[in-house]
Amino acid sequence: MSKAIPSLLVQGYEVVIGFETHTQLSTQSKIFSRASTAFGAEPNTQACAVDLALPGTLPVMNKGAVERAIQLGLALGSAIAPRSVFARKNYFYPDLPKGYQISQFEIPVVQGGSVEFYLGDEKKSVRLVRAHLEEDAGKSLHEDFIGQTGIDLNRAGTPLLEIVTEPDMRSSAEAVAYAKELHKIVTWIGICDGNMQEGSFRCDANVSVRKPGGPLGTRREIKNLNSFKFMQQAIDFEVRWQIEQIEDGLEIQQATVLFNPDTGETRAMRTKEDAADYRYFPDPDLPPLVVAPEWVERVRSEMKPLPRVLAQRFVKEFGLSEYDAVQLTQTKETAQYFEATAQISGHPKLAANWVLGEVSALLNRLQVSINDVEVPSPNALGPLIKKIAAGDVSRAGEKIVFQALCARVRDELEDLAKFIEQVIDANDLKPMNDTGALEAIVDTVIAANAKNVAEFKAGNDKALNALVGQIMKASGGKANPGQVNELLKSKLA
Questions:
Q1: Residue 158 near residue 37 (C-beta atoms within 8 A)
Q2: Is residue 270's pLDDT more than 80?
Q3: Cα separations (Å) of 355 from 26, 50, 328, 480?
Q4: Does residue 206 contact residue 15 with C-beta atoms inside 8 Å?
Q5: Class for the domain spanning 435-492
Q6: What are phi and psi of 324, to 5 degrees?
Q7: pLDDT tens figures, 415-435
Q8: Secondary structure class of 179 (helix, strand, coil)
Q9: First and final C-alpha spacing in the chain
Q10: 378 Cβ neighbours under 8 A, 6+ residues apart
Q11: d(Cα 355, Cα 372) in Å, to the nearest integer?
Q12: pLDDT value at residue 432
């Protein structure tokens, strides 16, 4: 896999990226009809007369789709237009039964706003231009083995919210971090299931390069990126390709391109159209969409706390760093798991370390969710953290007890604290409390590591860490690291 290009100049060029994200809204019916939006039905079984624009049919706006657009606007600090209009976007494609797409052009329902996120430990912000409601097209099914293409119109009329950014991103890493944050927000507030494989969250990346301080370059749009991994690979390839073209004296042509994950390359699909090519005009069958202030306030009152609000509360109530609080609110399930563990254990900072450390490593290793039975529940992890905070289990023993909890079905034991105590006793995992024995180990290590002792006395703090490591190893991991540090410093003063 290619390495993500950082937000620095690439061969003397600045990378400029903007995003258009098609978010499928979580309504049960389509945006202008009562047809189902359920995924996986037999082809062409969920396309009604309205979706096909048969003579005599009229579209009717789905109120649930509008409310979900309002939710996103409130979540991102956007303005909700009191009056917005729908237009017909005209183009021909086999899976577009009407010959036009109903969308919003001049006056979208959601305007402005921003998405804030972390890239590593650096806080970033991407400005939004707009988010507008529109209907999805159908899907072309290419059967290469028989040389035919079929059309499935089940998706036709599915409600979408297209979220458009300013060209604020400067690397593939930043673009992926933005897309992940947006994905987190739309799934957190429940307006989209976020299933990228099923096409519920599809990203188009507009990529260009320019010399620093120069005018924006010609952009090429990479369509339908449905994986964060492919997103990074596609943008990195496109950046390198554009730079090579320019360095060879060739001009970049505005185009729509596709990414092939098998080759890791992008290829042009068609020349990119401009707005004028779509011949937008107001849809005569749909009146203006009016959103009263009372409607906005009702939606606001019904929304659950957003990730950033919950993160701020974790910082204030639990004394966590802003970075840790943001990581703990990546999903609603993780936030709930942490909060429950913090309350049960009474030690929120230690709980945060465990959730972001051992628990996250377990999730990645097993590829499971935080609520699966393989992961110890807060009712199990909380008592373990209590034992750790009280100094009742050795450093080496912490992971052994955690692994023992992982082997149990969630909460199958009535007294998890008693089970933890049994594991500690059975495996001799209590910390070393014999000060005399610990001092003897410290003296032995000091005598055997004259070089590290000399380096520490000369001002090299890393040499102390080496000595601590030797003592922890000699004690079988039972010594208290804090006590070891204090003993060493007093003996070496």
A1: yes
A2: no
A3: 30, 49, 8, 22
A4: no
A5: mainly alpha
A6: -65, -40
A7: 888 899 889 888 878 876 656
A8: helix
A9: 50
A10: 337, 340, 341, 343, 344
A11: 14
A12: 67
Phi and psi at residue 202, to the nearest 5° = -120, 130
Residue 396: pLDDT band by 50, 70, 90 thresholds?
A: confident
Question: In whole angstroms, what is the distance from residue 190 CA to residue 303 CA?
Answer: 10
pLDDT digits 0-9 by tens, 438-480? 778 888 888 888 888 888 788 887 888 888 888 878 877 777 7
Confidence (pTM): 0.81
Rounded to the nearest integer, the mean pLDDT of the chain is: 90
Six-digit token string for 214: 């120069």
Output the CA–CA distances (angstroms, integers) from residue 460 to 179, 372, 449, in the order listed.
Answer: 43, 45, 14
- Unique residue bearing structure tokens 């230690």: 350
Q: How far apart are CA 203 and CA 183, in angstroms?
A: 10
Any residues with CB less than 8 A from the CB of 220 and at least 6 apart, and which? 206, 207, 208, 238, 242, 252, 254, 255, 256, 257, 266, 268, 272
Q: Where in the chain is the domain with CATH 1.10.10.410?
A: 435-492
- 167 φ, ψ (degrees, to nearest 5): -80, 65
| Tokens read off for 78 | 């956007």
